[in-house]
Amino acid sequence: MSLLEVASWEIFLWALHQLGGSAQFVDIEDISVKCFELAPARFKWRTRDWPDYKKCTKALQVAEGKQPRLLIKTGDAFGRQLTVEGQKWIESNSKRLFRLLEAGSLVPEPKQKPSARLLAEIVRSESFIQWSELGAVPQEKWKMAEVLRCSPDSSSSIWSDRLATARAIANAAQKENILHFLDQVAVEHPDWFGG
Length: 195
Hints:
The structure is a single chain. It is built from 9 helices and 3 strands, in the order H-E-H-H-E-E-H-H-H-H-H-H. By secondary structure, it is mainly alpha-helical. It has 2 domains: about 5-100, Winged helix-like DNA-binding domain superfamily/Winged helix DNA-binding domain (Arc Repressor Mutant, subunit A, Orthogonal Bundle), CATH 1.10.10; about 115-195, no CATH class. A hairpin with a 5-residue loop joins strand 2 (about 70-75) and strand 3 (about 80).
């Protein structure tokens, strides 16, 4: 498993283990800070290098949903402890997790950030492929609606907002080809966007 594939819930369990969660309950705020120490890019605020407890809470929810037998929670809901099964899971995964989390490796953000996913969907779309190969923008509104994730019947303000969002993401990612495609669609079909 690569660094990209280490799941946030696994980092949560490893952090709990590192804080003595086999023998005692550990407060989820302490686990949140430890998750941030282990994988700051994964557990930080978007704009600051601070622990984001919401990301840790999400990792906890996934762990409890996918692997409920691995954790025990306190009556006040703020503490977690590893069950016997959780301790065995840690033992069987410790070499991998140590290599990924304790050896100074950088654990990146999850692969499927919404912005990256949107750009990937645009590039895979029939409309973008046709434009790339033939230089022709879609003439059917429903095809572009699929690209922008809206209905052909959506208001022009929704179309305009979706276009602005996609353009901003493409520009930030320096995807000139996607930006050029979106701009050309807007020029050829201004009525779709309220122009």
